[in-house]
Amino acid sequence: MIEIERLSFRYPGAGTGVALPALRIERGARVAIIGPSGAGKTTLLKLIAGILTPGTGTVRVDGITVSALDDDARRNFRISRIGFVFQELELLDYLSVYDNIVHPYRINRVLKLDRQVRDRARALAEHTGLGDKLAALPRELSQGERQRAAVCRALLTEPDLLLADEATGNLDPANKLRIIELLIQAAERNRATLLAVTHDHELLPLFDRVIDIRQPGSPRAE
Ligand SMILES: Nc1ncnc2c1ncn2[C@@H]1O[C@H](COP(=O)(O)OP(=O)(O)OP(=O)(O)O)[C@@H](O)[C@H]1O
């Protein structure tokens, strides 16, 4: 469960940010976050993930007040509980698809890259149609395949909370649908919550709730 109370955030020197009076999202919900460009959708995801710390108010995830954790605890929380898929994929060009997928396990000591994880990485790749691309470099993949690799990486830790920020941007309609369906299936399998920022209104029927972040200072949650 995600609980937000009187949340506000402003970037230093910027006139805009995000403000949300209150919001509750049940565990396992699949939620689309919409709103005009600059309304604060990405900022909201970063506040929930503990990447940014709110100016005022609180964000609680499964009873944990994320902003009250110290830096190490917040990082560990993020690594072990949250899967993030960004629009800018941030796959590492010099690593194979397989090495990209398991990368979080190589750089975070809280994660252990054991045989089970390796098997899970391969199974995820198979399931997403990347089974024969594990040795390829990201630049040798199509855009849809790269995005699927980024989704596999986000799913490998079996996160409780999946945050997708325009994960389907720049993809054709068939690939958009495939990515969202992958995220929804994974969330259902793990009883995880899915929050997906999207500008694609045709994808909204796939979600069970839509939160519309309006102008900063006067947001609307529905
Ligand atoms: N690093 C930053 N420094 C200063 N201001 C920022 C920074 N990142 C975002 N902003 C500003 O904060 C506001 C909210 O940005 P955010 O990226 O959360 O919006 P968004 O709703 O995700 O937009 P979009 O749909 O265009 O991605 C915008 O006015 C933006 O210019």
UniProtKB/TrEMBL annotation:
GO-annotated molecular function: ATP binding; ATP hydrolysis activity; transmembrane transporter activity
Keywords noted in UniProt: ATP-binding, Nucleotide-binding, Transport
Signal sequence residues: none
Membrane spanning residue stretches: none
ABC transporter domain boundaries: 2-221
GO CC annotations on file: plasma membrane
PROSITE patterns (alphabetical): ABC_TRANSPORTER_1, ABC_TRANSPORTER_2
SUPFAM superfamilies found in the cross-reference section: P-loop containing nucleoside triphosphate hydrolases
PANTHER family per the UniProt record, alphabetical: IMPORT ATP-BINDING PROTEIN (PTHR24220), TRANSPORTER, PUTATIVE-RELATED (PTHR24220:SF659)
Protein name: ABC transporter, ATP-binding family protein
Organism: Methylococcus capsulatus (strain ATCC 33009 / NCIMB 11132 / Bath)
High-level lineage: Bacteria, Pseudomonadati, Pseudomonadota, Gammaproteobacteria, Methylococcales
